[in-house]
Amino acid sequence: MVKDWVRWHEDYEAPGSSLSRRLAVVREQLGGALAEGPKSLLSICAGDGRDVLPMLASEPGGRSVRALLAELDAELADRARAAAAGLDLPLVEVRTADAGATATYADVEPVDVLLACGVFGNVAEADMSRTVAALPALTNPGAIVIWTRGRGDEGADPSVEVRARFRAEGFTELAFVAPDDARFRVGVCRRSGGDPVRLPAVPRLFSFG
Predict the structure, then answer these.
(1) How far is residue 91 from each of residues 6, 29, 63, 107, measured CA to CA in Å?
(2) CA atoms of 68 and 71, how far apart (whole Å)
(3) The sheet that has 139-150: what strands, in order across it?
(4) Is the pLDDT of residue 7 over 80?
(5) Segments in the chain forming alpha helices (H)
(6) Beta bridge mates, 44
(7) Whether the model pTM is above 0.85
(8) What is the rounded distance in angstroms from the CA atom of residue 3 to the CA atom of residue 91?
(9) How many Cα atoms occupy the beta-carbon half-sphere of 98 within 13 Å?
(10) What is the pLDDT of residue 121?
């Protein structure tokens, strides 16, 4: 059964919900990243852009950031375009495209900030590993990556594997938010310097389960 992502987004509107609390944390961390004066941003599985767009409109220098939001759901992508227009953000492109397909990024220059929110909890561990391994190809040295992962209902916390994979790919963790009374985790990493990296020669980085 295909998940109704439009309906899923409704939980953002519930005060105190896990999603609304996660959104506040992501925005806070993005505000810190924008304070460094980045020139470009990429959000994969961007939804309706509610984590990125208000911050670009309100943070100093945010309106000068060239941003690409990739979202497969046409209704959510349309909402993001309308929001960007309403906030007068002409440097924002919303691309209705499969964020899991490498072809989506064929013409994308490496960025200074990348968001992978709502991704890793919906894909297999192998897909998570492949995606994290590809992020150096999508980011500049020194870039900041903000990611999220759910805690799960039982067993080991799956965010442990995500954090380990980022370390293995040469990222330095700047922050990790894991409230005891909520299911979400938010990680913030910085890519170390290095030579340019190519995207993996595979058709897909991940597929939603």
Answers:
(1) 25, 21, 7, 16
(2) 10
(3) 92-96, 66-71, 40-44, 111-116, 139-150, 184-191, 171-177
(4) no
(5) 5-8, 18-34, 53-58, 74-86, 125-138, 159-168
(6) 70, 116
(7) yes
(8) 30
(9) 10
(10) 92
The CATH code of domain 17-191 reads 3.40.50.150
Q: How far apart are CA 97 and CA 43, in angstroms?
A: 12
* 3 state DSSP class of 3: coil
Whole-number pLDDT of residue 1: 41
Lookup: tokens for 34:
């924008």
Give the DSSP H/E element, type plus range, for residue 171.
strand 171-177
Residue type, 98: D
DSSP secondary structure string for all residues of 85-137: HHTT-TTEEEEES-TTBGGGGTTPPPEEEEEE-S-GGGS-HHHHHHHHHHHHH
Location of structure tokens 């987004």:
9
Q: Of the candidates 50, 45, 51, which has an alpha carbon nearest to the alpha carbon of residue 26?
A: 51
Q: What is the mean pLDDT of residues 123-146?
A: 96
Q: Is 27 helix (H, G, I), strand (E, B) or coil?
A: helix
